[in-house]
Protein: HDIG domain-containing protein
Organism: Metallumcola ferriviriculae
Amino acid sequence: MLSREEAYQLLKKHLKNKNLFKHCLAVEAVMHRLAEHFEEDTQLWSIAGLLHDIDYEKTKDDPGQHSIVGAEMLAAEGLPEELVYAVKVHNDHHGLPRNSQLDKALYATDPLTGLIVAAALIRPEKKLAIIDVDFLVNRYNENSFARGARRDVIASCEELGLTLEEFMGLGLEAMKDSAAELGL
């Protein structure tokens, strides 16, 4: 298993877009918090979150290849099959089943982080500190807000046994703890 620093450097090697890099940091933070909540392997879950979009700049014009290429890259790095598979299935374009808690968590977390960032950015302060779960739920229920944050995928948090509010609360807490690194 790669250390966090090794995974960070690997991501830095493959992603140059600053906002995409911050997205990966946000997913890492939320996955770490979810692993704590479910008493799972925090290193495994965090690294899965950090590296889940490692191939995005290579595959952005071919969504059918996104996450397949990334999974191949991570397998070549010797990462555990459980992590490789979770990265592969976070893109539902492939129609692969989400079998483990890790698979389900990464799938639901990916768009949640976008919704949380968008909610922070519409506030004049542009800070996570002033956002709460009620504010997020209200934005979630506005279909015109953050259209790219797929509500059906976020709602799949129920597969983890979490309500939408619980999931948003854990995600928001994790991202607030990483606000300095995220620039929010």
